[in-house]
Amino acid sequence: MRAAGNLFATPFRSSRARALAAPIGNARTGSITVKGQEIATYVWGDPARQPYVLFAHGWSSHGTRFLPWVAKLRDAGYAVVAFDQPAHGRSSGEQATLPCFANTLLEVGRRFGPAALLVGHSLGGAAASVALANGLQAERVMLIAPAADPEAATERFAHMVALPQRLFRALIRSFERHVGVAFDDLQAHHNAPLIARPALIVHDLEDREVPWSEGERYARYWADSRLVTTRGLGHNRIAGDAGTIAAALRFMRGETVGERVVSSPNLPYGIA
After folding, report:
1. How many Å apart are CA 116 and CA 114, to the nearest integer?
2. pLDDT tens-digit profile of 137-188?
3. Closest C-alpha among 120, 107, 115 to residue 34
4. Is 37 in a helix, a strand, or coil?
5. Which of 129, 158, 160 is nearest to 142 (CA)?
6. Over the stretch 211-268, which tens digit does the pLDDT of each residue have?
7. Of 138, 157, 139, nearest in space to 147 by CA
8. Which of 12, 116, 124, 247 makes the best surface tag, with the fewest CB within 10 Å?
9. Domain that holds residue 142
10. What is the pLDDT of residues 13-69, one digit of tens each?
11. How many CB atoms within 10 Å of residue 154?
12. How much of the chain is in helix, strand and coil states, percent to nearest 5?
């Protein structure tokens, strides 16, 4: 069980090498300390003087994966801030969890101030939801292929490592004891209703890592949100896709993007 727990909290070994080899463009690099970990930051423009966009990457990824966004955002007058989560990229540490992701995002946001737009991809989307529900400030929010259900994610992990079903619940209980947070407190249905900011959720129907239904779930529970559904971009390409970036720029201009997801006792979900 301990071995499974350690594996669950450890990013893929190859991810740090990929991050170190990835281009950073003309970013100004720096670091901040969060709970004893050195967190690598990447800044384009001047977030102290310009409205800025804050990016939160997903599991086994890195902050500079959002480099394709930078030129478009800078042309539109925005500064950009990205960072590497603990145990990822150029940041220190060997292990991380969703609560760790959320806390680090919260501290980065406090350091740079309220963002004009917060963008979270995959587990970064889940971290954004948790951080916003706990005080992170951002004018608008964009979640790309966001993970809504940590229990389902744990079950997918357990299946991947062939963990017997009888040990699945034990793994969850072990995680909750280790981080001091109940799984239910990390669920989309718990956090999304607490967030009073406009949100745009973008998710692909053919996502094989985080099902489209999890993005739909955010849109259902987040009162001021709309959903953009894509096809053929999968889980990773969607984060750097030109259409995704264009949707973000339209969203920041206040244009109507996507469809509203509605829910009622008689209609579990639907598009309005």
Report:
1. 7
2. 999 999 999 999 988 888 887 777 777 777 777 878 888 888 888 888 999 9
3. 107
4. strand
5. 129
6. 999 999 999 999 999 999 999 999 999 999 999 999 999 999 999 999 999 764 444 4
7. 157
8. 12
9. 2-271
10. 888 889 999 999 999 999 999 999 999 999 999 999 999 999 999 999 999 999 999
11. 18
12. 45, 20, 35
Residue 166 identity: R
Instruction: Give the mean pLDDT of 2-19.
Output: 76
Indicate the SS3 state at residue 3.
helix
Return the SS3 of 264.
Answer: strand
SS3 101: helix
Question: In whole angstroms, what is the distance from residue 9 CA to residue 73 CA?
Answer: 33
CATH code for the domain of 252: 3.40.50.1820
CA–CA gap between residue 99 and residue 131 (Å, rounded)? 9
Residues in Cβ contact with 35 at an 8 Å cutoff, skipping those fewer than 6 apart? 103
- Which of helix, strand or coil describes residue 232? coil
Task: Specify whether the backbone of 113 is left (phi greater than 0), alpha (psi in -120 to 50) or beta.
Answer: left
Number of domains in the chain: 1
